[in-house]
Design brief:
single chain; Helix Hairpins; 3 strands; mainly alpha; 47% helix
Length: 218
């Protein structure tokens, strides 16, 4: 017999914007205060609000049996839900420059096994981030089905994924993430952003992913 699953659900329409784990100016000079404040307080909140709207609209559709706009709301659910999840991870895997440490034991071991060495991994990740077509993300995932790490490019952010993958390190290369500081020089942003990676948090997320878990805060 399977045991009952204990979990704390987020009810439809009840998602909230997670607070930043550091002050607005903590990531300077790589990301300035204004950029971070706009990105978190306005743009991420917009994903949260629209995710809630989509969930409530679909809950209403289930109650009434009216699914006339199902395509629209399902698209909103995927787009805004993905934006909320990835941004929630993004804030946590950054730390003030010099405080993120070095890649930890388990992360480094899995990187070396799959990518050959850390330099190969860094080169592939940075190039993936720099060359995403239009707006999107570069994402280091742990894949439970394959039991290894992988790097994915993610256009927009509900596209080009692998089912079942768990993101553990994400780089946002939508222009709103860097335009005030770097204008259209995405390459310089990615190279500078690399100094902000919080490897302790990446290690924690990898550990939880391999246990089949996600942090409650996403």
């Amino acid at each position: 017999m399977y045991q009952p699953i204990n979990f704390i659900p987020v009810y439809p329409g009840q998602h909230t914007l997670p607070p930043l784990p550091y002050p607005y100016n903590a990531l300077e000079p790589v990301i300035d205060r204004e950029s971070l404040k706009i990105h978190h307080d306005i743009l991420h909140k917009n994903y949260v609000d629209n995710l809630n709207k989509a969930e409530l609209a679909l809950a209403s559709s289930r109650e009434t049996g009216n699914f006339e706009f199902i395509n629209y709301w399902e698209n909103q659910l995927a787009y805004n839900g993905s934006g909320h999840i990835l941004h929630s991870i993004y804030w946590t895997i950054m730390a003030p420059r010099g405080r993120g440490g070095q890649p930890r034991e388990n992360t480094l071991r899995m990187i070396n096994w799959y990518f050959g060495d850390f330099n190969n991994f860094e080169n592939q990740f940075k190039n993936a981030a720099k060359k995403v077509e239009a707006s999107g993300w570069a994402i280091l995932i742990y894949h439970p089905a394959f039991n290894h790490l992988e790097i994915l490019q993610c256009e927009k952010h509900q596209n080009l994924t692998q089912w079942g993958c768990i993101p553990i390190l994400v780089c946002d290369v939508w222009e709103h993430a860097y335009y005030l500081d770097y204008q259209n020089d995405r390459s310089r942003f990615v190279d500078s952003w690399w100094e902000l990676i919080n490897w302790n948090e990446v290690e924690r997320r990898l550990y939880l992913a391999r246990q089949g878990k996600l942090p409650l805060s996403i």
